[in-house]
Amino acid sequence: MGSTEEEGLFIDRYSEYAVAEGMEACFTAFDKDCDDNLNLKEFETLCRALFRNGKDESYDIDRNHLEGIFEVFDKNGNGLIDREEFATCWNDWIKIIVKPVSAVVMVDVQNDFISGSLDVRKCPASQNGEEIIEPINNLLETVQFEAIFYSLDWHPIDHVSFIENVHNRPIHESSPVTADNAKVFDTVIFDGDPPIKQRLWPKHCVQNSWGAELHKNLKVAENAIKIYKGTNPDIDSYSVFWDNMKLSDTKLDAHLRANKITDVYICGLAYDVCVGATAADALSSGYRTILMEDCCRGVDLLSMEQTKQHVLGNHGVVVSSKDVADMVSGKNRRPELGYQLAMTLKKRI
After folding, report:
1. Which of 100, 102, 108 has its CA nearest to residue 147?
2. Is residue 37 over pLDDT 90?
3. Does 75 qualify as catalytic in the annotation?
4. Per-residue pLDDT, 4
5. Catalytic site residue 82?
6. For 62-132, where are the alpha helices, taking DSSP H only?
7. What are phi and psi of 163, to 5 degrees?
8. What span, in angstroms and rounded, lies between the C-alpha atoms of 123 and 335?
9. What is the pLDDT of residue 59?
10. Closest by Cα among 32, 52, 54 to 43
11. Active-site entry in 95, 203, 229, 308
């Protein structure tokens, strides 16, 4: 067994313990020159042992990211991480990477988006929303999440997003489209303070209707929490965290923090609308964010790619659901998520 493999096993062994001797032993193992500090080279060795895939192979680590992480824990800026600084690294970073606490958020897997009034097959990307149900069900049957959430669009009949209601509110003079000329998928601007930019959709997911129900074949886990969004007639709500104007939250964040969630796995419909908005808010809220691409279907191929690049650009990851079990268990540890966590800590330390 090579030295990196041995060090990887050492990380796995000592991450099981929150006691001081585990942290001290880990520090000593990577302090190769025994000067009671970790320099950048020694820290790189630690990171190569820490960031490993499900086959126990080390990930390549971006050099700029490595240096950025090191700087977060080198609080006095002397180019070394001493034992006191390593305590923060151990407790707030390494332990989370090795033993994450994970939640899954399934976004709007509802009848209207699969075979109803806003069937995504009729959208420009022509994707089949029903195809996500089997991989989602497999995920729920095989992965032990700490918390499980289902979101539901839950609109009143007079909701601002419905094209059928476009004449019910005054259009702002800056709107690129008039009420008379508006078509499905157009964006209008309604009067308001500030004016409200709104994409128009067919009437969908009306409260207590068949279209608003979760698809009958979707597994609904015991003890799962349902999050209802879009309930205000005058404000749309794509994200499962907030309405589109950030005026009110859905309490999802409060549930996640109550469960000490570190990692949020996201999937559902539609990839480039509500799923993307939820991922963006998860990232900005400081959660390690994982988008499960095979469990999503979208509206428009270009905006789907833009959603993906936004997640990747903000140090989330985009994976297949088959990779999730090893990630939730801490066996597959992605360096992008380690960097994202370090940057979140940087704002707090």
Report:
1. 102
2. yes
3. no
4. 52
5. no
6. 63-73, 83-89, 95-98, 111-114
7. -60, -25
8. 36
9. 95
10. 32
11. 229
Quickly tell me which residue has 């669009």 as its tokens.
Answer: 153
Mean pLDDT value of segment 30-38: 95
Distance CA 304, CA 186 (A): 18
The pLDDT of residue 22 is 77
CB 263 within 8 A of CB 102: yes
Other CB atoms within 10 Å distance of the CB of residue 186:
17
Dihedrals φ, ψ of 226, to 5°?
A: -100, 135
pTM beyond cutoff 0.90: yes
Closest CA to 338 of 167, 176, 96: 96
Catalytic residue (one of 26, 89, 205, 274): 274
Q: Are 149 and 138 in contact (CB under 8 A)?
A: no
Strands (E), 108-262: 147-153, 187-190, 196-199, 225-229
Catalytic one among 31, 108, 272, 300?
108
- Can you give the pLDDT at residue 5? 54
Query: In the annotation, is 229 catalytic?
Result: yes
Question: Each residue of 80-132: pLDDT tens digit?
Answer: 999 999 999 999 999 999 999 999 999 999 999 999 999 999 999 999 999 99
Contact 199, 186 (CB under 8 A): yes
- Give the ranges where 124-194 is alpha helix by DSSP (H): 133-142
Predicted pLDDT at 54: 87
On whether the CB atoms of residues 315 and 280 are closer than 8 A, the answer is no
Give the C-alpha distances (Å, rounded to integers) separating 94 from 30, 200, 335: 14, 45, 12
Query: CB of 329 within 8 A of CB of 16?
Result: no
268-322 tens-digit pLDDT = 999 999 999 999 999 999 999 999 999 999 999 999 999 999 999 999 999 999 9
Tell me whether strands 317-319 and 288-297 are parallel, antiparallel or unpaired.
parallel
AA letter at 42:
E
Nearest C-alpha neighbor of 108 from the set 158, 161, 186: 161
- Residue type at position 190: F
Beta bridge partners of 189: 197
